[in-house]
Design goal:
The chain has about 450 residues and is mostly helical. The protein folds into two domains: about 325 residues, Hydantoin permease (Orthogonal Bundle); about 120 residues, no CATH class. The protein is built from 19 helices and no strands. The longest helix has about 45 residues.
């Protein structure tokens, strides 16, 4: 295939695909619930959420573009091949068959279909639904060259039409005024910070690194071969898709805050969405909700299983892409049937550890032209980030772990000695210190290299 210039339509399709890959069930339910939690303080909470839910995923796409990477492995490569491989496995495991991919099936079933099925048939219903769901995800991603068409041209437009219909109803017939709504205790003084941490749940900063390989592969199939051209297309598509996603987040958060005018605070965003849609459309609304949730979950599942298979095939080529695809689809099916509550309970602590590490590597990649991807800078920042992140992970585990003797001891030390620990951001200051020390080490190394070069020239 010859190198060709992509048309505006091509850019729209790539952007649509990228948006659809990012926008899963969590992207619907978490901002909606955030609006309910924040109430009148919805705006500062939204700003915090947009940093981790939009800005960081955009930076992760730009990190792939700036470093000319083809996947998450390349992002960790400055720290050595062993670290890069471990980081790749951790990222793909978390957003893949251990937590993220199974959640796409369990959320779509719990929110969209479970209300229509008698309680005694729920377990069997989830088994059947998740089998069909991951079977479709496998079939729609088995041909890599058709992922753009299947997701960007088919599934995403249908999803957007349904979501636009829900927004039209919500804003043309509002249930209340956000400024008049109650604010939960945590959001009275910490709306911005709590919104920031809620953005972790989308997993999008991690997904952005993993989807890099899918986006790059798709652009190559469209006729782009030059690395600079691929990087430019990736960056443009990322800016467009994440900007659009940010607008949808704001609308969802605002809608969640308005819903308090009629409903009490719900246990989660899935229940809130169900209440809102049923309020406007009744029984018909449940069918629309089931379709909406299933579509958005399926598009994300396609991206996740494809990215997993592509990255693992690239690094373990003896096993084919289709085999890796089948393995991650089957593993996701098994994990999904453990139930949504178990998936969320055990994914949170892992995210509290991985997110700071991913944020550090994303920012290092974006800023890497300033220090030529010097491993010294990477090592300082990562070490200074990982240690406090371990404390956050321990604190977020279910009580069987967090309330153990070790968990209590770590919590006491964390609260006493690590700044911003009460906000779950105790990794931030050490990471900045590591950045300063790393850049200082880079400057000293460059200066020593220059001195050696000058000395050799003088001797000559």
């Amino acid at each position: 295939m010859k190198e060709r210039k992509l048309s505006k339509k091509d850019y729209v399709v790539v952007s649509s695909m990228l948006f659809a890959l990012f926008f899963g069930a969590g992207n619907l339910i978490f901002p909606l619930h955030l609006g309910q939690l924040a109430g009148a303080n919805w705006l500062p909470a939204a700003l915090g959420f947009l940093i981790t839910g939009v800005l960081l995923p955009l930076l992760s796409v730009l990190a792939i573009s700036i470093t000319r990477s083809e996947g998450v492995y390349d992002i960790g490569k400055p720290l050595g091949p062993v670290f890069a491989l471990i980081f790749m496995v951790l990222i793909h495991g978390t957003i893949g068959p251990l937590f993220g991919t199974p959640r796409t099936a369990t959320v779509s079933f719990t929110v969209g279909l479970a209300p229509l099925i008698p309680a005694q048939w729920q377990t069997l219903g989830l088994v059947i639904f998740s089998a069909i769901f991951f079977g479709l995800a496998f079939l729609l991603s088995v041909e890599q060259s058709k992922i753009v068409s299947n997701v960007g041209k088919l599934l995403n437009p249908v999803f957007l039409l349904l979501l636009a219909f829900v927004f039209f109803l919500g804003f043309s017939h509002p249930m209340g005024t956000p400024a008049d709504q109650a604010i939960t205790t945590a959001y009275k003084t910490g709306a911005f910070t709590n919104g920031f941490l809620q953005g972790y749940n989308t997993m999008d900063a991690l997904a952005g690194l993993a989807f890099g390989v899918t986006v790059v592969t798709a652009i190559k199939f469209m006729g782009k071969k030059n690395p600079n051209g691929i990087a430019l297309v990736t960056a443009r598509a990322g800016i467009f898709s994440m900007g659009f996603e940010g607008l949808i987040y704001l609308a969802l958060i605002f809608l969640g805050a308005m819903s308090l005018g009629r409903f009490k605070l719900s246990a989660n965003g899935g229940i809130a969405f169900d209440q809102i849609v049923n309020h406007y459309l009744g029984v018909v609304g449940q069918s629309i909700l089931a379709t909406l949730i299933t579509l958005t979950c399926l598009t994300t599942a396609i991206g996740l299983v494809a990215a997993f298979a592509q990255d693992f095939h690239n690094h373990f080529p003896k096993i084919s892409y289709k085999t890796w695809l089948a393995l991650t689809s089957a593993a996701s099916f098994l994990t999904a049937n453990l139930g949504l509550n178990q998936i969320i309970a055990w994914s949170t602590p892992v995210l509290m550890f991985l997110y700071p590490l991913a944020i550090a590597l994303i920012l290092l990649s974006v800023l890497s032209p300033l220090f030529q991807r010097d491993p010294v800078v990477y090592k300082f920042v990562v070490v200074f980030t990982v240690i406090p992140a371990l404390f956050d992970m321990m604190a977020a585990f279910p009580s069987v772990v967090s309330q153990s003797a070790l968990g209590q001891a770590m919590h006491t030390f964390q609260q006493a000695y690590l700044p911003l620990a009460q906000y779950g951001l105790d990794w931030l200051v050490p990471a900045l210190v590591g950045m300063v020390l790393g850049i200082g080490g880079h400057v000293l190394k460059q200066h020593a290299h220059l001195q050696t070069k000058v000395s050799q020239e003088n001797q000559d």
